[in-house]
């Protein structure tokens, strides 16, 4: 909404407020009420206003802006006969429990069911009665001066309200309040048209109009008193607004200083962020190097696992070969025992002692390369006993040496180690490599 439109609506709202405030007249309003006692509010309806079921009277602190700022309220009782009892004095009673406890200025306001203020009383206070209260009598000359002064104050009031409207348009609440005032303006325009029609119809009734003029005179007096209180209120509001403006300026300066501090802190954060990015780049390089090292370690581990598998395979082959050699050794030992038994039997048959016939052969000769067999007993066809080392047994000798029945040991082998998992072959000399290779398979 444009600035000029806001000012026009604010001015129109002030004029409409003046018109609507005169439709219900509050009378017998004291300047102060004693705290702790019930308060009776007396009021009279004018002929321009018809009460409705949901109308109410509220106690407002002087300086209120909307009808939602009431302190307490009471519902209005409708007259039994709206045709004859409208001009009669009405009353509503406020209980002491719900009344204000401070000494601020308050006033009665009549609000219809549409939320429009139809009448307002002069300001009053809730305070104990004192001897310094003086009844002020206003002369006719002073009334005229007061009316002229009130006109000036009214103009100043309009300017102040327009200024308040310009200040309040900065907040979202002002827009809602402005829409409400616009609705009230439309309602008041309808009421104004109705009043104009009634005024045209009342031109023929001069007697009734004279009574209305008297009532309006009484109403104007009350309005003058209200305007005087309103001027005081507006002056206090203006002072409060100036203080609020100074406070806003100080807050703005503080926010500017805080913004400068935040800017410096932001620069420091940018420097810290640059350093962190540099550290992050170094860390990324270190991660890449660690990944390369990890790849090399994985490759080395795979090679070690392959070697371990080869060693395991060769170890298995060595175990198989060892088992085979052990079986052959046992078989040779059994054959040797049989030959020794046979040799002992033959020696006993010939009447010889085995200890005197058998040569002392070192143990290493049995395990080494095969030697030529020697005669361990004499030729049975010659009567001469030969020395055990005098000759060799002939191939034609029907009796053979027990050693000839033994199986000659196999030639020295260089076994290979085969991994049982990957069948990799390792030389027997690399036994440790083979075992490490097999161990890598278990990782």
Written overview of the protein:
- With 443 residues, the chain is of the alpha+beta class.
- Among the domains are: 3-128 and 136-204, Immunoglobulin-like, CATH 2.60.40; 318-361 and 371-394 and 401-441, no CATH class.
- Helices cover 55% and strands 12% of the residues.
- The protein is built from seven helices and eleven strands.
- It has helices spanning 3-21, 140-168, 172-201, 206-350, 354-357, 363-367, 431-441, and strands at residues 24-27, 32-33, 39-45, 56-61, 70-75, 89-94, 105-111, 117-120, 124-126, 416-418, 425-427.
- Strands 2, 4, 5, 7, 8 and 9 form a six-stranded mixed sheet that branches.
- A hairpin with an 8-residue loop joins strand 4 and strand 5 (70-75).
- The longest helix is centred in the middle third of the chain and has 145 residues, at 206-350.
- The radius of gyration is 65 Å and the shape is rod-shaped.
- The model is unreliable at 1-16 and 359-413 (pLDDT under 50).
- It is a peripheral membrane protein.
- It is found in: Cytoplasm, Cytoskeleton; Cytoplasm, Perinuclear region; Cytoplasmic vesicle, Autophagosome membrane.
- It holds the Pfam family SKICH.
């Amino acid at each position: 909404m444009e600035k000029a439109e806001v000012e026009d609506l604010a001015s129109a709202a002030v004029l409409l407020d003046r018109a609507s405030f005169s439709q219900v007249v509050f009378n017998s309003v004291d300047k102060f009420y004693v705290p702790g006692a019930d308060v009776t509010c007396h009021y009279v309806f004018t002929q321009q206003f018809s009460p409705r079921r949901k109308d109410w009277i509220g106690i407002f602190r002087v300086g209120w802006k909307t009808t939602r700022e009431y302190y307490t309220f009471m519902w209005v009782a409708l007259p039994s006969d709206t045709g004859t009892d409208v001009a009669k004095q009405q009353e509503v009673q406020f209980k002491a429990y719900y009344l204000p406890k401070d000494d601020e200025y308050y006033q009665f306001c009549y609000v219809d069911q549409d939320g429009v203020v139809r009448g307002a009383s002069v300001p009053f206070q809730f305070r104990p009665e004192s001897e310094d209260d003086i009844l002020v009598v206003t002369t006719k000359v002073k009334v005229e001066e007061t009316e002229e002064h009130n006109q000036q104050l009214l103009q100043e009031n309009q300017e102040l309200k327009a200024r308040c409207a310009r200040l309040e348009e900065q907040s979202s609440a002002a827009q809602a309040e402005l829409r409400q005032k616009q609705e009230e303006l439309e309602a008041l325009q309808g009421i104004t048209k109705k009043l104009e029609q009634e005024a045209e119809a009342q031109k023929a009734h001069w007697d009734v109009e004279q009574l209305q003029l008297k009532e309006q005179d009484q109403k104007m007096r009350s309005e003058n008193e209200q305007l005087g209180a309103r001027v005081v209120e507006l002056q206090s509001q203006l002072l409060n607004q100036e203080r609020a403006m100074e406070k806003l300026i100080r807050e703005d300066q503080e926010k500017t200083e805080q913004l400068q501090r935040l800017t410096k802190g932001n620069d420091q954060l940018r420097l810290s962020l640059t350093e962190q990015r540099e550290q992050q780049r170094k860390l990324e390089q270190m991660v890449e190097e660690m990944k390369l090292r990890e790849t090399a370690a994985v490759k080395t581990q795979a090679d070690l696992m392959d070697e371990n598998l080869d060693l395991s395979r060769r170890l298995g082959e060595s175990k198989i070969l060892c088992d085979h050699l052990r079986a052959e050794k046992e078989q040779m030992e059994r054959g040797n025992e049989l030959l020794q038994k046979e040799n002992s039997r033959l020696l006993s048959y010939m009447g010889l002692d085995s200890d005197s016939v058998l040569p002392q052969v070192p143990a290493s000769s049995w395990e080494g390369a095969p030697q030529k067999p020697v005669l361990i007993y004499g030729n049975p066809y010659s009567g001469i006993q030969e020395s055990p080392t005098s000759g060799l047994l002939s191939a034609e000798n029907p009796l053979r040496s027990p050693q000839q029945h033994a199986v000659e040991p196999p030639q020295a082998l260089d076994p290979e180690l085969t991994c049982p998992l990957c069948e990799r072959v390792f030389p027997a000399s690399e036994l440790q490599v083979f075992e490490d290779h097999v161990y890598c398979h278990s990782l």
